[in-house]
Specification:
The chain is an all-alpha fold. It is about 50% helix and about 0% strand. It is built from two helices and no strands. The chain has helices at about 1-20, 25-30. It holds the Pfam family LemA. It is a single-pass membrane protein. InterPro entries: LemA-like_dom_sf, MamQ_LemA.
Amino acid sequence: MSVARRDYNDQVASYNKKVKRFPGALVAGITGFDQKEYFKADPRSGQAPAVDFGGK
């Protein structure tokens, strides 16, 4: 998951740069494209869930 999150955030960073710089900013303003948010994992996502298989 961390690899996918990093890849996604790298693409968001690239997209956001293009939206902020000329001529991308001009086109983005006309077409309504905005900067995107980075993916932030829930702090609890690093913890494994408790599983009970009904053992004695």
